[in-house]
Amino acid sequence: MPIATVNPADGETLKTFDPLSERETERRIARADAAFRAYRTTSFAERARLMEAAAGLLELDEREVARLVTTEMGKPVTAARAEVAKCVKAMRWYARHAESLLADERPDEADVRDSGAVSARVHYRPLGPVLAVMPWNFPLWQVIRFAAPALMAGNVGLLKHASNVPQTALYLEELFQRAGYAEGCFQTLLVSSGAIESVLRDPRVVAATLTGSEPAGRSVAAIAGDEVKKTVLELGGSDPFIVMPSADVAAAARTAVTARVQNTGQSCIAAKRFLVHTDVYDTFTEAFVAGMRELTVGDPLDEATDVGPLSSERGRSDLEELVNDALAQGATALCGARRPGGADRGWYYEPTVLTGITDRMRIHREESFGPVASLYRVSDIQEAIDIANDVPFGLSSNVWTHDDAEVDRFVRDLEAGGVYVNGMTASHPALPFGGVKRSGYGRELAGHGIREFCNATTVWRA
Fold first, then answer.
1. CATH topology of domain 239-428
2. Which of 25-29, 69-73, 95-99, 340-344 has the lowest average pLDDT?
3. pLDDT by residue (tens digit) across 279-289?
């Protein structure tokens, strides 16, 4: 795949980039290694000053960088601006909380004495240069939610971004440089996917984090495992959105539309499978389908657009294959299931609701990365849980109920990294984020995320 900006709204190639040579890649790794040796000793106050400076610059650049993101990967520009604001929030959150999150931990005094020590504590130290392999769907947020905690912990970053967002990747490197970070603290590597292995095998690169597809995660995990290096993986998701009889059905249906089409449906944590109790199924379905039909599909730079183009022609073709497979095996499209009329340019697809899904259909277990919802009628809570768990993924989940016993049951039995009750999944810097099963391992954000790339050092003194 070439490293290029290709506008998804019209398919026009706007700018191409030559990949870095092996020699230049080596220079950047060496620069990261040298930068870490100095940066690791900086105080939390100095790190916070730099992070706050970067956040301020990003805030000032909001409109310009949002337009760049939209041009590169197609999300509605209003969503791109919201992504910028979310990044600024996370950067400032870590600038203010990193020191307390990484404060020394002191065991109970009785346990210290029992260990034979006069004193004991756990001290967190940074690991070194970390390789971040990041996707195109949230090209700012996915990077910042790694970079903010990693840099505040004293690590340095090497970014291998998706090949279709090279200008966003270069902007991020420039952002940290403008904020005053030393050369080498955060660098973008414009390289092909084939170059990841050599970078990860370099002994100066100590760990890796990847957000992306399951095959990409398997590859990075295998290489890192062979090198005995730490990894954090956030992979695919096919999150359930469960509606029970006690729910506010009207609110659930409104939220369901947003939960499915956020980022034009190209989000790992977007709700994709809607499991609705038979007692409220008809009411929910009528409102949900009406909401999907009312969405405006169009130019992502238009403020009125709700759903933009998919990020690539291949992405749309993959989505169409899932829909067509389901329809061929008996599913029914309640709306959409086609390209918009007159959309002969750009990679658009209408918001779609499919019902009559069976376990023979690919869409039952595969992730649909676009504005396509799978709708199921369930008879009780057990059936909802069974269908929800009948996928290889376990990223997050959404449950709508006002029955506390049902909430407890969902929290106990849903195989997911999160359970969001009477709302939709959303990441926040204060809450850990990640999944189970083939959705990956490890956690980002909160204290869990900043400690992923730290050495928890036991300090024991007699």
1. Aldehyde Dehydrogenase; Chain A, domain 2 (3.40.309)
2. 340-344
3. 999 999 999 99
According to the CATH classification, is domain 3-235+439-461 in 2.60.40.420?
no
Q: What is the pTM of this model?
A: 0.97
Q: Within a 10 A sphere around the Cβ of 104, how many other Cβ atoms? A: 10
Q: pLDDT at position 341, please?
A: 83
Choose among 451, 437, 357: nearest CA to 101.
451
Pair 387, 376: CB distance under 8 Å: yes
pLDDT of 454 over the 90 cut = yes
* Exposure b/e, 292-330, CB count within 10 A at least 16 = b: beebebbbbbeeebbbbbbbbeebbebbbebbeebbeee
Q: Residue type for 214, please?
A: E
| pLDDT of amino acid 219 | 97
Write down the domain spans for the chain.
Answer: 3-235+439-461, 239-428
Half-sphere exposure of 432 (CA within 13 A, CB side): 17
At 312, phi and psi to the nearest 5? Answer: -155, 160
Q: Using the 8-state DSSP alphabet, how is residue 339 labeled?
A: P
Angle (CA) 286 287 288, round 5°: 95
Catalytic residues: 234, 268
Percent of the chain past pLDDT 70, that is, above it, reads 100
Q: What share of the chain has pLDDT > 90, as a percent? A: 99
**Helices 62-73 and 77-101, packing angle to 10 deg:** 110
Strands (E), 299-361: 332-335, 352-355
What is the rounded CA–CA span in Å between residue 233 and residue 212?
8
CB contact burial 366-403 (16+ within 10 A = b; e otherwise):
bbbbbbbbbbbbbeebeebbebbbebebbbbbbbbbee
Pull the structure tokens for residue 438. Answer: 């083939």
